[in-house]
Each structure stands twice: as C-alpha cells, then as structure tokens.
Amino acid sequence: MNTLFPLGLPAATAFYLCLYLATLVVHLIFMHYVLAGSIYLAFGRLMGRARCQACSWQAILVDWLPFATGLAITAGVGPLLFVQILYGREFATANLLLSHRWMAILPVLIVCFYLLYLQKSAWIARRAWAWRSVVAAIACAGFLFIAWSWTENHLLMLDQAAWPGIYAAGSLRYESAAVLPRLAAWCFLAFPSLAIELAWQGRLLDRLDEPAAAGMQVLGLSPVRRLAVTALCGWAGTLLASWAYWPSIPDAARAAITGPLGGPWLAVVAVGLVIQIASWGGAFFSDRLARGQLIVMTAAWVATLLGVAVVRETIRLAAVDLAIGGQLHQQALGIGGLPVFLVFAVLNAVAIGWCIRTVRGQVTTGSEG
Amino acid sequence: MTPLDHYPTIDLGPLMKGLVIGGLGIFHVFLAQFAIGGGMLLCYLQWRHMQGVCRLARRFTDDYFKLLVLVSFVLGAVTGVAMWFTSIQISPRTIGTMVHEFHWVWATEWTFFCLEVVAGYLFYRYGPRLPDRTRLQLLVLYAFASWMSLFWINGILSWQLTPGGWLENHNVWAGFFNPGFLPSLIFRTISAAAIAALAACTLVNAVPGFTREERQSLVAVCARPLVFMLAMPLVGAWYLGTMPADSRGWATGGSVPMTLFLTMAVGSSTLIGLYAVLAILRQRLYVNGATASLLLALAFVATAGGEFVREGVRKPFTIREYLYSNSIARDGVADLRRRGSTTDDPYPLRDQADYPNEQLVLGAKVFRAQCSVCHTLDGMNAIAELAATWSIDQRRLNIAQLQRTKPFMPPFAGTPAEVEAIVQLIGWRHAGRPADWALSEDPAVLAQIERWLEEAGTGPGNARLALGARRQ
C-alpha cells in the first residue's frame, strides 16, 4: 500500500472501494444536514420563541429535515450495500457483537423521524414553546445516539482482536479511547456541511439575498454571518476533535494516512479546508455571500468530504486483511448485473432531474391545476 | 464456498430467532405492498379526476398521499433497513450470500428507491399546487419506481426457494428469473393493489369533510382494484406449482403449521375477495370505517399467513439446495462430519463456567452452531422439550439422522463426538443441570453413532423423499 489510493490496490477491491466512497459521500451530504440540523435546532430552541422565529435557518430546517432524513436513509442504502461486499465479515461481526444495542438505532430512528414531522405540524404550533424545545431535544438526542452507535460499530469492525473477548463478556458495548473524539470529529464536521447546504437552500428559496435587516438578526448576527459562524465553529471543533482522535489511531494506520496511500488525500482535505475557512471568513466580514463564492466553497466542500472519506478508509485498510477480502471482491466483480445497474442509475438520475426541474419550474411560475 | 463461517451468535432468550425476523418481515411486506399498491391507486384516481368522472379524486389523492408518506416513507423505509440488519443478526451468512450474488440487482433497486423518494416527496410537498398533468406524471413515476423495487426484490426472494438454473451455472439472471419469479410477482402485485384499496376505503371514512354520498362514490372508485383478487386462486396455484414437490407437500398437508398458515392466508383472502366482489363492487354497498378496518386487518392476516408459508417451506434450506437454515453449506456437510462443526469456532461460551465438563461445553457449542437459529434450549421450540420423551439411544439416532427424523431438518454436520455431546447436553438439562455430570466416551456408542451418520448420508431428507417417489 505504497501507492496513491486506490491505485495500488487489487482492481476489484479498488473498484468497489470507489463505488463505496462515491455513495458514502452522497449519504454524508444528507446525513450531515440531518445530524447538524437537529443539533442546530435543539440548541436554537433554547434561545426562545422570538429569536427562533426571526431565524430563517431554523424555519428552513423545521420544514426540510423530514425530507432530508428520508434522503439520508435512502442514500445510505448504497454504501450499506457496498460495505458488505468489501468488509462483509467485519461488518456483520460488529453488528452481532453490539447486538440489541446496535439494533436499537432502528426504533430510535423511527421515533426521531416522526418527531421531525411533529415539529412542523400545526398541532405542535398550538402548544407551549417548551414542547417544541422538548421535541427538538429528543430528536437531537436520538440522532446523536445513532451517530454514537455507528462510530462504535465502525471502530469495532477494525479491532478484530477484541471480538472474542467482547462476545464472552456479552457487554453489547465497545469501549475505546477512540470512540468519543471520533464521534465528536464527525459531529463537528457536519456543521460546515450544514452551513453550505443552508446557504444553497436560502439562495434557492430566495432568503439569502434579503438585506440583513434588524428583524433578521439573531444575537446580533445577520443570516450570512450566522452561517459563517456555524461553519467556522464546526471546523474548529473538527480540528480539535481530530487532534484528540489522532493518538488513538494505530501506528500502521497513521503511517498509511501520512504516507503515499492517504497523504495526497489528506492534502486535498487541507486545501479544501483552507478554501472554506477563507471563504467563510470573507463572507463574515463582508456580510455577503456571492454565488461564485458559494460555488467555489461547494467544490472545496465536496473535495474535502471525499478526502475525509478516503482518509477514513485508509485507516480501515490498514486494519483488515485484504488477502481474504480481495478474492471475494474478485468473485463479486465476476457476477453479472453491472450494466443493468449502470443503465438504470443513469435513467433514474435523469428522471429525478426531470422531476425536480419540472416541479421547480411550475411552482415558481405559479401555475395552478 | 466454506462449509461454515463462524460468527458471534445473538441470544434472544426464550424467543425463536425465526419469529423475530418473520414478524418484522410480515410487517415490512405489508407496509411495502401498501406503498406499491398506493402508488398505482393514486395514478388511477388522478386519471379518473382528469377524465372528469370523479371530481373528489384530486382532493382524496392529496389526503391519501399524506398517509402514504407518514406510513410508508418512515415506517416502510426504516423497516426495510431493519430487515437487512435483522437478517445479519439472525443469519449473516444467508444475507451475505444474497448480497454477494445479487449486489447489482440490489444496487439497481436502490436507484429506484431514490426515484421513488424524490418523486413522492415532490408530490407530497408541491402536489396541491401543480397542474393535473404534472401531478399524474409524478404519480406515474412514483408508482413505477415503487413497483420496480418489488420487481427486483421479488427476484431475489423467489430465488431463495426456487433457484432454478443458478444452481448449475451461478448466473445471476438464471437465478433472478427463476421458476417462482413471475407467479410471485403477479401475486404480490395483486396483493399490493388489494391492500391499497382497503387502506383507501378506511381512509375515506377517516378523513373529515366528505358527505356520506361523497364517501360512497369514493369507496366505489377506490375498491375497484379489488376485482383483481379474482385472479388470486389461479396465480396462487401457479406459484404452488413452481415450488419443489416437498415444499408444496408441507404447505398442502405435510406440515400442520404450514397448512394452517396457508389456510389462514387463503381463507382471509377469500373472505376479502367475496365481500369486495359481491358486496362492494356488485351491489355497491357502502363500506364504513369499521368494516374497512376489519377487511384491512384480514388482509394483514392473509399477508402474515402467506409470508410465513413462503419462509417456512424453504426448510431445511435458506437457499434451496445450497445453504441450510443453520448457514451450513450443503456441500460442506461431509467436511464438517470429519472436522467437526466447532473446531474453528473462535468464540467462547458466555456461560462456560456453568458446565460441569468439557463434553457439555462442546454440546453447547454444537447447539449454538447448528441448532440455535431455529431452536432455543428452554424457550420456544426448545430442543430439550422436543426430545423430552426420547430415550438416550433414540436421541443419538434421531440427531445423527436428523434429516430422516424430520425432513425439514438439515443433516447433522458434525462428528460422532459432537452428536454425543449434544445428546449429553439435553440429558443434563433434563436432569436439572446438576453440578456433576459424567463424561460419555464409550467407543461402542461413538461407533454406533458413526454408523448411523453414514447411513443417513450428508444430503438433505428431501433427496430421500424424491428418491422414494421415483421408485414408486
């Protein structure tokens, strides 16, 4: 593994890894919106009714979080499929070891999903403000529990030596110094994503170009500045948590991250990070976010997510035995069906694009049936 | 293919693992069929509205879609993921094989999920503000995508019972378009249409703002897809005909639980069909909320019965002629008879200290590897209970020749010492788990078990049934 990812890997493994990472990044885009959005909303509710009502970002989140959750779940099916091709034994074992605790994410997800719908219902709007805070807090706690469970599951996959001991103990938990900082790093990383996604939503919903009038200010910050603060705090938290996570990464994995395999991707992350921080800094001071600036920032953001996903994978590749998995990947690649998938992926992507374009065109022109 | 992959096993206490996944599966299938049928019904309603023959259809379509989103997009989607995770918990090797063999089919299905969610949510959010033509286009895309998700998953599920040519050439399309594919697809499509129609009849009565006459006219339109239930006996018989003979035999009298569940499914469907055709469609009777709910509950019973039979008649396999219910490869039994089923098991027992000797530890590990997916030690379908009246030699014989004892059991895939270990485990539990328990190592007993094992062979019991049928 002394070559740039994925070039030095067996062809079949590299192919599935690329598919996995591509689908994972799409999932992250929606998952970050849901995770950071629910935290943003839960803490925002604590500012009181007047400030919340003045914050257009919170209104957007209340409105769109249920759909984003549906998209995050649907987008999650792709990486869930490919992770089983790539690391089937490790993934299944980690699931089984965490057992009921792991399976608890499903009822929790259902409850959180319904709470998001409840948040935008007329029923809750008629209730005291405290109820909205409680609903937002429970949904946020639920999503954090799911994030924690995924973090534990992922780290347990990598720690094969611990499997028999954890099974014998029947503890249904994986305790490791890496869990908390890694979880924190991923949670904080969701905030820069949320800021960019909200910026696009605000632009598309025509809320970003409104002047930063007094009525739109919350805690003395305009909408653009609030997004900038969200993104910059998110990056600060991510860097701090990553710094705390670094010592718990095994030496071999650290060497892989900084070596030829992951090093260039780490550089991509660093460049993307610098561009985003500079852009958000500029937006904060100018109190303005131009379209071109947002496009550059978005490109840097997607590159950063891809880089982070590859670095994450580098750690895993250093922990698993590819000699066994590689044969299975080769066998899997020999199974028919890829052309059918590609054809329908393109056709359905076109159909999705058509749906969005048609509806957007008809809704904005205000035609009624 | 390795004979047996060792995974940590989950402990559900007195619950049978099969019941957990079966229960969740029934719930998910019902929701999924509601979503698929719902899409088709809404297309029909929107089209009727555009024809000018059902003025209420547009409003009702919006109401129905809200229900569809709240039920199907949330519960349906999450229980779909839950099915995947639960399958891993119960039988990681089965779901692993399915994913490995059909990952491109699953990936294709995923692209349709994406289209279904986007088209559906756009309709839910903007539908009331869109012109009729766009509404219909969105609904058609939504309905097509959801039906296509059925199309893809149906190929994989029917493959488990009737793998067809896949067994010879491992070609994905030979497995996908297996003998059970088409009847199963048609049957499920009719079921989906019926469930959606009954849900609509229930909703018509639950939504405020309609007069009695308006409700009656909506029920008359929404109930129309129920007429397709007339084809169910024919398609059902076709599906039964594609099943392997032994599986069909269990469903039609050979296994009391299977036959009962099939009767339950057929009986409930018949009642719904008769009421729908004679009362709702012919006499145009009004269906109130209570009746509609009762019919919907009957549809759930029919789904539960049908799914139970579909899962049950695969025994002793999870993938017919390829992988046994306990995740042991059919071709791997002979190897495990030599090496033992627990030799490579890296996982210790959680309660190892409770066993008085190593033979009982071995017995518990054999139980975990070969039996625990369907049996418990003391809870539901308990092995100790099933063997309670057997003498010790009967236990040895019945376990050594498991596939002959019950044809829906897989062959025992272990050494004579492992047979004796599990026999001793059952005896020890019957004796109240005493602190001391003598080892049973009589070479004559082990030699007799070995003879019994050889006599039964390493194939499934149904191979013997098929041989007997040919001789007749």
Proportion of strand residues of chain A: under 5%
Helix % of chain B is 55-70%
Strands of the widest sheet of chain B, in order across it, are: 1-2
Return residue spans of chain A where pLDDT drops below 50 for at least 5 consecutive residues.
211-215
Shape, principal axes of CA atoms of chain B: elongated
Tell me, what is the CATH class of the largest domain in chain B?
Mainly Alpha
Low-confidence stretches of chain B: none
Number of strands of chain A: 0
**Tally of distinct domains of chain B:** 2
Summary of the model, kept short:
Chain A has 369 residues and is mainly α. Chain A has helices spanning 11-45, 49-54, 56-103, 105-119, 122-125, 129-158, 163-169, 179-204, 223-245, 251-258, 263-286, 291-319, 322-333, 338-364. With 472 residues, chain B is mostly helical.
Explain what this protein looks like in three dimensions.
The complex is a heterodimer of chains A (369) and B (472). Chain A has 369 residues and is mainly α. The longest helix of chain A has 48 residues, at 56-103. Chain A has two domains: 11-335; 336-369. Chain A is globular, with a radius of gyration of 22 Å. Chain A contains 14 helices and no strands. Chain A is 80% helix and 0% strand. With 472 residues, chain B is mostly helical. Chain B folds into two domains: 17-324, Up-down Bundle (Formate dehydrogenase/DMSO reductase fold); 331-471, no CATH class. Helix content of chain B is 70%, strand content 1%. Chain B is built from 20 helices and two strands. Chain B has helices at 17-51, 57-90, 92-126, 132-161, 166-169, 172-176, 181-206, 212-222, 232-242, 245-254, 256-282, 289-312, 333-339, 358-371, 383-386, 392-400, 402-405, 416-430, 443-456, 461-471, and strands spanning 317-319, 323-324. A two-stranded antiparallel sheet of chain B has the order 1-2. Chain B starts with 16 loop residues before the first helix and ends with a helix. The model of chain B has no long low-confidence stretch (mean pLDDT 93). At the A-B interface, helix 3, helix 4, helix 7, helix 13 and helix 14 of A face helix 2, helix 3 and helix 4 of B.
